[in-house]
Design brief:
Layout: E1 2-8, E2 11-16, E3 26-35, H1 38-44, E4 55-56, E5 60-68, E6 80-83, H2 93-96, E7 121-125, E8 129-131, H3 138-142, H4 144-157, E9 164-168, H5 172-184, E10 188-193, H6 196-204, E11 209-212, H7 219-227, E12 231-236, H8 243-250, E13 251-259, H9 271-276, E14 280-283, H10 289-300, H11 306-309, E15 310-315, H12 319-328, E16 335-339
Parallel strand pairs: 9-10, 9-12, 10-11, 12-13, 13-14, 15-16
Antiparallel strand pairs: 1-2, 1-4, 3-5, 3-7, 3-16, 5-6, 6-8
Helix pairs in contact: 4-5, 4-10
Length: 340
């Protein structure tokens, strides 16, 4: 089968590989569409914390079941599905309490021989697979995984009805976190970015305010003036230097910020502002099964404008171009899908 490899930093190629083997409780999926995620770009740049080239890239997909192991009971050939692409050891406290994302032995596509999703076929354990409602398209299905990230972040932030929220970063994850925040009841949502086209997408997704922070030294003040005060919650969807301190400065006393973005290097912040205001910084790592189920339900209910998020659909043969589009933010790209 054909598979998309990040062969080395900034080098994406298509290679022929053997079909993945399925075990007794595995499902084989014919991939219809796979998404390029921001964390895939970290791998593309050679910066990912644990997913290193050469690797079959990808962890977002939607497709059709074409084969099941003898021990599979919940799926059959022809089912339209998506996947929660993570597995735990199944025995530790984290796994037993539904927090596979905490598991010290957590596995993911592209690690330890598990093929990534950007291939003609993808094999995965039955318990990671979710049926798509009949009314959902494959394009909507491929957004389930990144939307689950946004749902999880909103839950970690404890966004409530009437909250005033700032989302820093209007890439696909920031926009999907925006959709989740709106669904949770946030009534005032300001989204920041340095790209006007991304902020235009935020408005279409329901942001009440946007702010381009490019070359602005005093944007914190402007953000607060725009919404009439401090923010209850801040979601950080851009891992740029100084952004933790900026998020804390946006918060009211007792407010909470959640880190969604993948960071590299050290972040510093004003500990006095954090402590005296009893503000909180909360880490956020992937999602749980509960988040994935909620993501499917919310997408199916119309909470995500996929035509805003998905800006490009390319053949797998054009995957290298897709990675360049996302990395360089060319052609007003947000979510780029690769089709098989």
């Amino acid at each position: 089968m054909k598979a998309v490899f990040v062969e080395d930093a900034y080098e994406v190629i298509v290679k022929e590989v053997e079909l993945p083997h399925i075990a007794d409780k595995d499902v084989l999926i014919k991939v219809k569409v796979a998404g390029i995620c921001g964390s895939d770009i970290h791998t593309y740049k050679g910066l990912h914390l644990f997913r290193k080239p050469p690797v079959i890239i990808g962890h977002e997909l939607a497709g059709e079941v074409v084969k099941v192991g003898d021990g599979v009971s919940k799926f059959q050939v022809g089912d339209r599905v998506t996947v929660e692409p993570q597995v735990g050891c199944g025995n530790c406290e984290a796994c037993l309490t539904g927090n596979v994302n905490y598991c010290a032995h957590r596995g993911a596509p592209g690690l330890n021989g598990w093929y990534g999703t950007m291939a003609e076929y993808f094999a995965t354990p039955e318990h990671t697979v979710f049926k798509l409602p009949d009314t959902m398209t494959y394009d909507q299905g491929v957004l389930v995984e990144p939307f689950a990230v946004g749902v999880h972040a909103v839950r970690k932030a404890d966004i409530q009805l009437g909250d005033k929220v700032a989302i820093l970063g209007a890439g696909p994850i920031g926009l999907l976190a925006l959709a989740a925040a709106k669904a949770a009841g946030a009534t005032t949502v300001l989204v920041t970015d340095i790209m006007d086209y991304a902020l235009e997408g935020a408005v279409k997704m329901g942001a009440t305010h946007t702010l381009n922070t490019l070359n602005k030294q005093d944007w914190i003040v402007e953000a607060k003036d725009t919404v009439g005060g401090d923010f209850d919650k801040v979601l950080i969807a851009a891992g740029v230097p100084g952004i933790i301190d900026q998020a804390i400065s946006l918060l009211r006393k007792g407010g909470r910020c959640v880190t969604i973005a993948m960071f590299h290097g050290t972040q510093t912040f004003d500990i006095v502002n954090l402590q005296q205001g009893e503000k909180e910084i909360v880490g956020c790592m992937t999602y749980t099964r509960e988040d994935t189920i909620a993501a499917i339900e919310l997408i199916n209910a119309g909470h995500v404008a996929e035509d805003v998020i998905i800006t490009h659909k390319l053949s797998y043969e054009e995957a290298a171009r897709g990675f360049r589009l996302v990395d360089k933010k060319e052609e007003s790209s947000l979510k780029v899908l690769v089709e098989f």
